Amino acid sequence: MGNSWAVDLANVTAVYPWQGTEVIMVVLGLVLWIGWHIVQFRQENEDYADDLARYGDKNTIMTALDEDPHSY
Amino acid sequence: MGNNLDALTTLFSEFYYWVTVVFMFLIHVGFCVYEVGASRWRNHLHTLMKNTMLIPLVTITFFFFGWWIYWAFPNGPFITGGIEWEAASANAAWATTMGTNLGDHITGVFWAAFLLFSWTAASIVSGAVIERIRMGAFWILAVLIGSVTWIIDAAWGWHYGGWMVKLLGYHDAYASGVIHAIAGGFALGILVVLGPRLGRFDAEGNPRDIVPHNPWLVTIGLFLIYTGFWGFYAACNVPIISSAAIGGRITGETWTATNIYLAPTTLSAITFNFLMSLSGGLLAAFMVSRGDPFWTYSGGLAGIITASAGNDLYHPIQALIIGAIGAFLIYKLHFWVERRFKIDDAVGAVAVHGYAGVIGLLICGFVLWGYPSSPFEGYATVNPVGMAVGAFIMFFVLGFLPAYIGASILNAGGLLRIPREVELMGLDFKTLREVHGARQNIRSAEKALV
Fold first, then answer.
1. Interchain pair B100, A15: CB under 8 A
2. Could you give the ipTM of this predicted complex?
């Protein structure tokens, strides 16, 4: 793709920027994907640990089960 | 695009698939609404996020490698040939056709149509495991079915050159097996490892009902899934193609729509059969469940799913009866399996999708016995044995087994199930408490202004 649309469209194919770096972009995408899972697993573990520390005692759980859930 | 007719055909096909994708989005909306309605109030926000976030995760992985698998593995590989490197290379994540490309109007919309099937496969599983699976674990398993196992089965049994089509005469036009049987089997594989929700069975093993917090939402969700299913059916077709472009044994110059195997069908035919199989499912499910709304709606879906394998060719009354048989059997099977094996499938997904899909493949093998599975030469015709083997591959080999292994690995690492106390207090306990606190806070502030 040049810097003008004064072209025969029959000859135009890919028009996105940075052509030739597709493999690098895919590798970057894969790293972001795996990284997201790692961070998410950590965050989820932290959240459960926090839930257990703050609300995990028997009395709170019994209260939670007795409460009308629509009240909050 | 060589001439104006080619250009019109290409642009029509591009628009056609785009419309199906938008329609199919409703399947996911329906699954989210349905799942949230089926969960208890104390878990509904987590339930929603669990299903919603499979959208980006399956999308990016389907872009990175799922789509490549479909084009690379129709031969197994090494069953009817090697890896199809050339076809796959145009559909690899780094191909120039996998981006903004004025020379290619089809890859993006065709990729998206398959991607929406991927979401559906993962979303079917999502409902079965609500209220006790960790979100992170579910998302790993969602990627496994959405971007790996289902698309392998599509390459094998839902591709004009798939080895199952060639050797077994496998015919599954609207995905009884390639989406529903595999997803049901996959859900069962997780459920076996995950176990039931706390309190679901009493000490004697009798099941207790965990009722949906909003039955109305459940039924609206299923209505939306029906609607999206129309788009799914249309997306399974090639909308317009000449017999010369097919390149098979069809003679003459008549243009046609085809199924995914490039064998002729019409949108009109599948519209007849979609509605008649839906009706058969609804009628039978209403009767067998004595008017239970949840199972009546689910039975409608099961009716379509049971008839889907052959809905390109069935007579509408055959579709009606097959749909009814499917809905009746899956209802009976669901409760038998629940009592016998203590399986807690929260939304009946294993039955509605898995058993209905398998039953549909088995029935199709008999009803379409002797029909050509493909317009190309050298392919096996549709037959009961080939369809039974296909059903086993879909439900067990590519469904149950990978899920059982994946869930067992996650379970061994303590990453599959939420902590017991969190399950009892509810996944949303902290969030709902904060919401309650915020409401109290603003109410107090407002009262102070009176």
1. yes
2. 0.94
